């Protein structure tokens, strides 16, 4: 019995072991099969929300935008603001690059990516900066937060306050690293503001974002921004990723005096994100401005811009009311040649410059097609002259235009007449409504020849849209070309032209389309604004 019992027990043990083995193998096979298709399904179905924006850092113009104001999680783009506040302390002299910052237990337990700092360690400020821009070290971000703010929640409030001061009104920070937090949100437009601001505000420290490798305790750490050194002109700045946001990037590129800041949220992978931002750069870099005209992006810049726009709108309303009063006096519409002048207060270059609702059509002047003479100084009691309004300065004519102006008094151009006795100052008769006028340019003190009548180009009726007032005519033409690309079907019958205006000592070029009906102009403006191209309507 014992022998039989022993055999039975040994056989039973073998059976249990065999069964356990079979169950284990089956379990392992089931787990592997479940994980494999799950990983495939996850990769195929992972579609993080996409956003992008490209800003011309020279002019401030938005070149491209997709969901630019939609809420997104910043992930490690958060660390740009962390470094912004650190650079501010450095500039104020409250901390030095050689200063040591202590590592707390809370900082040491942060999730990767990290330097694996230990509680009680310390890290120099400059080493911390390099660790942030290359390794995107979360433990180092908390070290900075605690050194500057006392604790991370207090530092996050400082970050949000600074964001508001910069005009990043859709951004809220809850931590210094960008680790997942449902309440930590931003937009592509806000990150473009920050990407420009940190360059404008801290040119002496921004160069750290171009660090490609970082040596720490015998190990070489490569920057996560793989566009550095591979895309011509890229000089920074930061990448980021959490599952809720996808693969993000804020990047800056300079080529041949062009300067773009591009932002992408929601890449499915780092290579996909990088490919997208490469495409955005290549599509916009060559049509960007080459001269810096935009004001620096600093604290309060957006408030100043809004105040400026409010003042301009108020002035435009007063001008319109005054013109309406003049219109009610019954002044007859005439064709005149005048200097195109704008109000003396200077708008922000690159912005949509407010204008009076006067219809202006620029007339191209070709050599040989127009007699040019010089105007003599106004003689005393020797010529018959019409009163000259404030907006017309006969010694500074720079634009030849035909104007149908029913709102303000007009200047009647001299009409050729037969020789007569010495004329005296007197009130002139109104010119014929359709009388064409030959215009002479201002010059030296030479007598004005008697011109032969020549037809003046007739402006197309309808509406005009203006898409910018830029300091360079080439930039104005490029803006027109960009608008034609964005709204080809709506602007295919419109006449693009630029108009030179003087504002004090500055010269701007308005970018305009003429010859539109009101509904066409409204539709075109609406479409262009959705593409972040400024647009306003003007009655012709």
Explain how this protein is built:
With 540 residues, this protein is an alpha+beta fold. 34% of the residues lie in helices and 18% in strands. The protein contains twelve helices and 16 strands. The protein has helices at 2-45, 78-92, 105-108, 125-134, 138-149, 152-165, 188-201, 270-284, 301-327, 473-486, 488-491, 518-530, and strands at 51-56, 62-66, 100-102, 122-124, 213-216, 219-222, 234-242, 246-255, 258-267, 335-336, 359-362, 401-404, 463-470, 495-503, 506-516, 536-539. A hairpin with a 2-residue loop joins strand 8 and strand 9 (258-267). Helix 2 packs across helix 5. The longest helix has 44 residues, at 2-45. The model is unreliable at 1-5, 16-41, 330-423, 434-444 and 452-459 (pLDDT under 50).
Summarize the structure.
With 540 residues, the protein is α+β, with helices and mostly antiparallel strands.
Please write the string of helix (H) and strand (E) elements. HEEHEHEHHHHEEEEEHHEEEEHHEEHE
Characterize the biggest β-sheet.
5 strands, antiparallel
Strand order of the largest sheet: 2-1-9-8-7
Oligomer: single chain
Number of DSSP helical runs: 12
**Rg for CA atoms:** 34 Å
Structural class: alpha+beta
Strand coverage percent: 15-25%
Please bin the fraction of helical residues. Answer: 25-40%
Give the termini separation.
Answer: 116 Å
Mean pLDDT: 76
> Can you tell me the residue ranges where pLDDT is under 50 for at least 5 consecutive residues?
1-5, 16-41, 330-423, 434-444, 452-459
Query: What is the total tally of β strands?
Result: 16
Principal-axis shape: elongated
